[in-house]
Amino acid sequence: MKYLYCALVLCAVFATGWSIKCWDCRSDADPKCSDPFDNTTFAITDCKQQKLAHLGNLQSTMCRKIRQKIHGVWRYIRSCAYLGEPGIQGDERFCLMRTGTYNIFMEYCTCNSKDGCNTGSLKGLSPSLLISTVCFFLWKIV
């Protein structure tokens, strides 16, 4: 019976992990979207529910945060990401930076490690710690 409870918990956790939820906002529309990010007034977006017509059936599997400086004005854009890879060569700690002419700077940070990973600095509970804690308590109860 203990193994059944652990299997059910693991299935529930992994079933919700197949889609990602990301913050979706723009700092030019709401200043709380800039850094430091204040997510108290934003609802997190289920990227599985978003469809972009020009991408066909492509599903979003990542979150993206774009920081751009155009003519001295900083903007932040947080959204679901459809193309690319997390971070640089799979390492989410690094962002892709681009500069251009006419005083333009852009930084793309892409992640898929957890829901809401496009906050920039979110402290959260480790999924593996949560799973092991639940399994431990279920083991002791049964």
Automatic annotation (TrEMBL):
<keyword id="KW-1133">Transmembrane helix</keyword>
<keyword id="KW-0336">GPI-anchor</keyword>
<keyword id="KW-0472">Membrane</keyword>
<dbReference type="InterPro" id="IPR031424">
    <property type="entry name" value="QVR-like"/>
</dbReference>
<dbReference type="InterPro" id="IPR050975">
    <property type="entry name" value="Sleep_regulator"/>
</dbReference>
<keyword id="KW-0325">Glycoprotein</keyword>
<keyword id="KW-0732">Signal</keyword>
<keyword id="KW-0812">Transmembrane</keyword>
<dbReference type="Pfam" id="PF17064">
    <property type="entry name" value="QVR"/>
</dbReference>
<protein>
    <submittedName>
        <fullName>Uncharacterized protein LOC108561087</fullName>
    </submittedName>
</protein>
<keyword id="KW-0449">Lipoprotein</keyword>
<feature type="signal peptide">
    <location>
        <begin position="1"/>
        <end position="19"/>
    </location>
</feature>
